[in-house]
């Protein structure tokens, strides 16, 4: 199901261009990483994909797999080293374990979104993009406002592959202003 969400988001917003350098945060089990490898042309030497997750995951041919926390101080430098330079796109389908308490789950999702944004600001090339999952609710509006200050275009998307009862929404932000502009 997750891979279909990314394919739909890519078809709609053109996130995974040929030759792009992509970072997949919270990558396990690897569906998004596989789609990124396929669509960027890694097999033809045209793109690069680095997957980062706190736990181990199965290898994805063509992708560099790093184990670590996106919030770790060395995470940006490790990813930049594996990519061989800055990223064009940071993907985040990270999710905290659900508690069943909607306000708590929403706050946890926002905390991961904030971590993904902070990470992206350290690794993105100016003009780059981020696609990250959040849970709809009052706690996510401030983060969306912060993202809007950092990027030229920000859209909220709900892929058809999302479950009807799910409160997930994807924030697609294009045209990062760079370290001096946001």
How would you describe this structure in keywords?
alpha/beta, 182 residues, globular, 7 strands
Give structural notes.
With 182 residues, the chain is α/β, with parallel strands linked by helices. Helix content is 35%, strand content 27%. It is built from five helices and seven strands. The protein has helices at 2-13, 31-40, 75-83, 102-123, 141-150; strands spanning 21-25, 48-53, 63-67, 87-92, 124-135, 151-157, 168-176. The protein is globular and about 45 Å long. The N and C termini lie far apart (33 Å). The model has no long low-confidence stretch (mean pLDDT 92).
Largest sheet: 7 strands, mixed
Structure classification: alpha/beta
- Discrete helix count: 5
Give the N-to-C terminal Cα separation. 33 Å
Strand order of the largest sheet: 3-2-1-4-5-7-6
Query: Which sequence of SSEs, written as H and E, runs from N to C?
Result: HEHEEHEHEHEE
**Radius of gyration over all CA atoms, rounded:** 15 Å
| Low-confidence runs of at least 5 consecutive residues | none
The tally of strands reads 7
What is the approximate shape?
A: globular
Strand content: 25-35%
The average pLDDT is 92
Percentage of residues in helical conformation: 25-40%
